[in-house]
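Batch 3, record 17
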Amino acid sequence: MGQSLIRNVDVLIVPETGECQVHEAQDIHVANAVITAIVPTGTPPPATTAASVGTPSADTTAHSAGTPPLDSTARVEVIDGTGLLAVPGLINSHTHSPMVMMRGAAEDLSINDWFNQRIWPMEVNLTPERVRVGARLACAEMLLAGVTTFVDHYFHADQIAQAAIESGIRADLAPTYFSSAGPEGIDAAIATTRDLATIHPRITASFGPHATYTVSEEDLRRTADLARAEGFRVHLHAAETDAETQATLDKHGATPIEILDRTGILDAGALIAHACGLRDTDFPILARHADRTTVATCPKVYLKLAMGNGTPIEQLHAIGIRTGIGTDGAAVHNTLDVWESLRLLALTQKHQQNNAESMPLSDILRLATRHSAAAANRPDTLGALEPGRQADIALLDLSAPHNQPLHDPRAALVYSVRASDVHTVLVAGEVVVRNRQLANLDLAEVLADARSLAHTLVDLSRGGAVQHYAP
Amino acid sequence: MGQSLIRNVDVLIVPETGECQVHEAQDIHVANAVITAIVPTGTPPPATTAASVGTPSADTTAHSAGTPPLDSTARVEVIDGTGLLAVPGLINSHTHSPMVMMRGAAEDLSINDWFNQRIWPMEVNLTPERVRVGARLACAEMLLAGVTTFVDHYFHADQIAQAAIESGIRADLAPTYFSSAGPEGIDAAIATTRDLATIHPRITASFGPHATYTVSEEDLRRTADLARAEGFRVHLHAAETDAETQATLDKHGATPIEILDRTGILDAGALIAHACGLRDTDFPILARHADRTTVATCPKVYLKLAMGNGTPIEQLHAIGIRTGIGTDGAAVHNTLDVWESLRLLALTQKHQQNNAESMPLSDILRLATRHSAAAANRPDTLGALEPGRQADIALLDLSAPHNQPLHDPRAALVYSVRASDVHTVLVAGEVVVRNRQLANLDLAEVLADARSLAHTLVDLSRGGAVQHYAP
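Prediction for the assembled complex:
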């Protein structure tokens, strides 16, 4: 791994609390995948910085000797950031990346019909190859849009890992399982999590039971035991809708959150997707596990599937639970565009709180960065541009008419930016998008592969379904 | 005016009722600003087409002689549409275009503070030059995003007209007035409407009283009388929020709609912006004027300013009133992106109706085209790609990863497309955007002018305000 320097760039600073700021004309120094210093353009980085952040191989560079960056050794890649804004690479906190293959194939349907008439019947068509082709397309879409990490939940996760590794993106992967897969199916998914945990520095893994309505309490309990013993967290769906919560109460005498509690899932640590159907009694339970619980919210999906008011963000924050922003799969969200998701979250929060001052710019940017880093299970190493964190950085060009004049770059990021404004992207210090082009994937090939297989994914002629939706 | 041929393009067909369709591999023939024929690629257009749609100067072309288009005279500009989708140019049904100059300068504020602390104090800084610079930027933004017509309501409308004429966009312009401007101010605005009505084939004009809470009944009555006598329609704000409706009831014993009725505005014909605060008693009144009433809805604004559930689209449609889609000004909407607006309208309708099957793809595309053409006061000449209508056409490139694979182009248009996918745009048959570049404006100059004046618009040091918001 090398060193790089992003020169003369404006930098979005997202503090833990309080107002976000933009520091103009900065140099971002990177060594061994980590940000080592952010200093005013042209000034040498502090000599102690590299050492202090634990990157021993970087502390002998020319930078620490005080010479200007451009005069240092040829090993330093210099990226001209003039006119660009550096922001923490976005994190897609909950998705099913290969479902891009079904984009636009299940529109204007109730959640029941979406699952039972389209998606789960379509998923009988999944093969390793088709998942990999879909995942490569998803990685391409996300990287070009400034998403540097995605938190995934899907089948054939080993194939998704390969696509992520190849593309240069970072991912946390949860191999999906239903109880209907039987013990062997669950064991295979568990084994995949173990395998993926050590496969590559940019890949982490989670256990992936699908939901409390598709995985038995016995299987959830076993998952929780393994998670605690082996140090994994659990990524699953729970309380997606209030109707699900009511049905779960009717069937099991407990809410989905209570089931997660009594099976030990919350004790092990969980990323809960959606949590739109929480009851008042759920909050004290979640509060007891706030140190190890995060929630992913996907607002476009809640609007599109008419799922009600969505995740109760403010109530979750009040008990110390961080909420990351995600897209869910593109079979319902249609894009993997986290800019779109964060804008919709800000807008819907103002609407639902009946307060235009709710979810101000700095708060929504914090959710899209620091909170989402927590949802990705990397709260201390992702989600902010500061020395010691991974160099996952998106450089935006805000010069197009739809962002101009630029009275407030933070407002542009939330309310006017387009994914197409992403100019250059680094993950772990490596350039993965340069001047709007993918560095590691052949986009034409990725698209051709996806187009050639698309019909096979949406074919309903085989009959059957991977599962039936009846929460 | 010349002839053009868009060759080998897919075409979105939006019928008056029923499902939208995409007809693949078509040739769109254009003469004298009008679509003369749409036929399968390579087939000659019907010889009678040009004559039948009332374009006498076109009926002598080589096309009607039955020779293939490429063999016709050099006057025919051929645009290669291979791989592109032609859709009716979008229509921004309600905006204040020069307010792009305040983009991002009034965030996270209540509607009261937005008006009284920011926007109306800022508008004391308006000058003809600043309005023109803003309007040029707005035209640039809209054209690049496939917007071919905007329905505007603002001050110094003569300057906006010049920007529109220069850029090649089409516009309906309503010079704004308050009663506080006094008789001379109102007369000047009325005179501007008259002047603009004949200034250019692409410009139409409307009367522009601001709202029922800023224009007296006496002035509204006089406006209505002039509108009827001179054949203008009236574009104004009414029933923006339920609070406004209640306040109007308290002050005047009538709802805003009842005031529009008793002053003759509805009889004259009106485009009503927002109409979010309608009461049950308003619907029968509007129904009596459905043949001459349209409503513009701007969903992003209602979310952002926490204005409640927005325009009651379904109830208005039930009484035969067409609803166009708009952005409102960029000082609140942050963009002039009608793709964003139509997507938000589809999503929020599903949410508010608590029905994922509400506002299906074909319906939202119909609102963005035919209904919005009605809001632009050109229901018969804009809003559809069919012989006899104006050749206002956006060609989209849906080949990027976020739209692929393309199972359903209609779904892409509503749920995944970005404004940056707009490739080529024609207005009245003239190419105004070619391969994502403006044909008539120097974008660098437009942006430089806007940046250099931006600070003057948001300067609050002069004190005062153009109006006080107290509906």
